[in-house]
Amino acid sequence: MSNSVYKVFAEIESKAKLLAQYWDNFHTEISQHLPESYQPEIQELTDKLETALNQLVYELQNPTLTLATTGTTSSGKSTLVNLLCGAEIVPVAVSEMSAGAVTIEYSQEKSLIIHETPGALWECGEWRGISDDKIYQRLYQAMIGYIENRETQPNLACPQSTITYPFRLLKESQLQLPKATRVRILDLPGLAYVGDQGNANVIKQCREALCIVTYNSAETDSQKVKSLLQEVVQQVKDLGGSPARMLFALNRIDVFRADRSWPESENRFVEKAIRDIKNELTEQLKEYTEDIENLKVVKLSTWPALLALQIQNQDDFYSAEACKKADNHFNGLIEDILEDLPRNTQKWNRHDKNRVAEALWDKSYGEEFQENLREHINKHFPQLVIPQIIERFNIAAGNAIAEWATQTTNAILNSSEERYQEECEKISQIRSSIERFLKISDTNLRKPFEKLDTKVKQVLAEELKEELKDDAVNHIKKAIAELQNVAPYKELGEKLSPLFGWRDALRKGLQEVLEAVAKSLETGKIDLNNPNLKKANISDVNLLSRNLNHLVNLGYTAAVAKEGKTMEAKTEEEKNQLQKINEELNELAIHLNIVIEDVLKQISTQELNRIYEAVSQLFRHHLSYTEDGLNTIAPDISIKFSDYQLNQVDHQLTFNFQFTAGFAITQGTWLEAIKIEKKRRDWYTLWLWEHTFYETQYETRSSDNAQVPSVEDLLAGWIIQSQGEQIKIVNQIARWLLEQIDVLKKNVNNIQNDILDRYQEKLDRANQEITLDYEKQKDVWLPMQAKAQNLSAEFSGLETSWKFKN
Predict the structure, then answer these.
(1) Neighbours of 572 (CB within 10 A)
(2) H/E run at residue 595
(3) Is pTM beyond 0.70 here?
(4) Where are the alpha helices (DSSP H) in 261-349?
């Protein structure tokens, strides 16, 4: 079958429409053998199916394709958005210009809405029929207005904008989508702005988006490259879900064209970059190890690719401007044809321009990127949309029809008085068997976490030996290892690693913040530019930076910061100096606490989302196993569990952090040597003359004493305190997991009991209303039972065929 998205959606639509025909044939035939009293429920099922089928077809024909773009610092993300649009409408600058989220929806009409946001210092409103330049300028003014004021006004909400535009992605990329697909590009903020609450809300909307993550290939500094890799991980975590739906673009790859042996150096870089990105992601997202191994990474140079499109613009002014930029910045990409071109770009004719455009497009890997993006959409877009559409269809009608057909035919076959009594006893036995199965199943799921809960309570009550309290997170690892010794959960592999992986993520974030502070004080050069500190409120980070500068100016740097110092301040000047250091170090504690709590809060949000997804995976696995087990016990009852209805993990788990720090100044005394002037007459002068001499006396004085801590000692306190918080978090997770399991168990029990009750009702009704002789059973109802089973299989096949296909 073709990989086009259209054909995938069309095939599911066609299969769903066949289900309506199967049901129509089935209920027409069965109605001939049923009393009139059955007609209302048959009609009700028919109506439900019609409504559900119309909704399914509508959703299949009108899906929404969202492409979310994000990227590392200075990775050319905004230029990528412009490339997808085919025009320069999103502001681009040397410094980070991304501020707030921009949604670009496909439309033949151009318009811009800058939404009203609290405290906006830029013009908000709606403009229709707006030009590309005007879109660019208005977005620029909004973004720059936010960037220039957010430090002094930390509560200022970031700008939120919506553009409608006939972007190139849909017009020229040869995407074969369902006819009424709504396509939009969601331009997410750079990492520096992820912490903003307005942007955080937008990021939540892209959980089902296909994502393009740009990486700055031009960066060569090893420390900055390390930081970029961290940013990639942060972007993936913020976007949520599997990295499989993310296309990674190594942007600015044209930088290697300047090398003498550029093909070799480019290939070497690409191989290393892919390896490093995969290793970094695997280390911090173990649950997606298999997806990461198959990660799609492509080469790209967005700016020359965009210029290639602009050069071909029929507007002579835009084309000329693009030609000038290409000549100024990308001579290396068009050097093969430069000698054939006039030096003045104004003299390039259309043929010249086309040659330049073709060279830029080819050497920027524009076509290669476009093909990879098309394949990415073909492969992953249906997976994001179709399962949910089918699930909603099954909840609305599919499951009910399969259950009714299976249960009704089975009830009629067991409606004779003799078989009725046997079937009632059988139902009773089925209930008992199901109850035993669910009890065992629930125990297998609960037992490891109950042990975890008990262990944590002992730790909190200080009943365990100190060596057993050291690493509380190991208790979670042991619980998961025990769970995965049980058959149904062995296949989960690393899927549950987020339940304990949060510890390493929090520790890593904390250490990176503390290392940045330590290095700044030891070197005297304040540098708080790392991915985790970018998550904190910028005004709080600036206050911390100012505080560090004060400490450096007070002499708390170099050897003092590295090794600490015992200070005994005797003079007023020394006392003032010590007091100022004390105050600044206590201020450091205050500012650092605020920043650390903010950073850990942001990291916790990421890690909690991973935990929720891990538990959802666990529950999906548990429900699938439970459903199979129950249908083995009761094959003629048609027990179905909706993941959408049952697997609703409560997102109320929270991590809280509070830290303290500082050092004390103690009062002390010291003896000050005082020289007292005296006069005396000595015998050897016959006591004729007096002379002056000095006698030393000691007087007690007060002093301010303090052991000024080293940076290492000062910051170690935060590490120790964070370790103390771990057991509290483990306690929260243990309690929360047991609560979620209890809710799941209750829901499963209710649903399976309802299904059995409905079968009992059908059996009772058949016993009262239908008289069945052997010949009718043999000639009519045994074949009808087989047809009911086939019908049920066909409805189930809508989902299973899709799963098999993917």
Answers:
(1) 8
(2) helix 572-633
(3) yes
(4) 262-284, 289-293, 302-311, 316-329, 335-338
